[in-house]
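Morning. Coffee machine broken again, so started the prediction first thing and wrote up yesterday's gels while waiting. Chain of 191 residues, entered below exactly as on the submission form.
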Amino acid sequence: MRRNILLLRHGEVQGEAVYRGHQDDPLSPLGLQQMHASTEGYTWTHMTASPSQRCAAFMHAHSGTTQALDARWQELYFGTWEGQTYAQICAQDRQLIDQFWQDPSRTTPPQGESLASLQQRVMAAWQAACAQPHQTHLIVTHGGPIRIIIAHLTGVPLAQLPTIPVPHACLSHIKLSEHGVILHQHGGSAC
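Came back before lunch.
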């Protein structure tokens, strides 16, 4: 049986560009429009979202489908970096943040979540989604979890996760069948 899984990254968020992770900021009006534009022409039978309001708001705006919140689809927890800009973090410890972006599989944000932990929970959520009988399943999540799935499907090492482009409102369409997996990305500013 052929099934489709759609991974949608949330759109633009209100406020300045900071490390949000588990910080629960709402979508901007443009962010919600971006998500609607990326999913135009698609239909789905089931929807799952990260409980962060920047993801859940899109899910709550749609009725007529089976819906669920799943914390396994949350973004990486950035610890003491949460709510800070890149410049603020650089002022505290430029070497550590540079190490994180050069190889996030070997560097964890202070008091934050490791990439191995993110991978473990996201892959558990992915396996659960793949096991469901839904013909088309939309998962509304964040850049980190989407990169984990794309890396898994394409064989990209975790150290290279930052090189996978997943802009706001990017839609990754994954087709699963007995013949294999096909990945398409579109929407967002650089998919």
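The chain has one domain: 3-77+114-187. Going to sketch it on the whiteboard this afternoon.
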